[in-house]
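On clarity, I found the account of how folds are encoded harder to follow than it need be. For illustration, here is how one protein appears when written out as sequence plus C-alpha cells:

:::
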Amino acid sequence: MPNTPHQLAEEFPDYVGKIRHLRETDGHFRRITDEYEVVNRGIHRAETNIEPADDFHMADMRKERMRLKDEIYGMLTRLEAADTHP
C-alpha cells in the first residue's frame, strides 16, 4: 500500500540502503520489519475505517508499532556505529 503513512523509508530516509541490505542478509531484521509493515497497515486500515478498531486495540497496535520501530532503529544505529568504529 504505497499511500500508507509511516513506511520505514519515510521514517528512516537516511537508512533506506541499510534497511534493504539488512532485510536481505539478516533474518531477524527481516522478520521485525515484516511485523512492522503488518502492524502499520493494520493501523492505517483502522484509521481509514476499512477495518475499524476500538480505542484500546488502536492503542495496542500503535505501541507495538513504536516498539518495533525502536528495535529497527536500534539495529540500524548499532550497524552504523560498528561501521564507523574499527
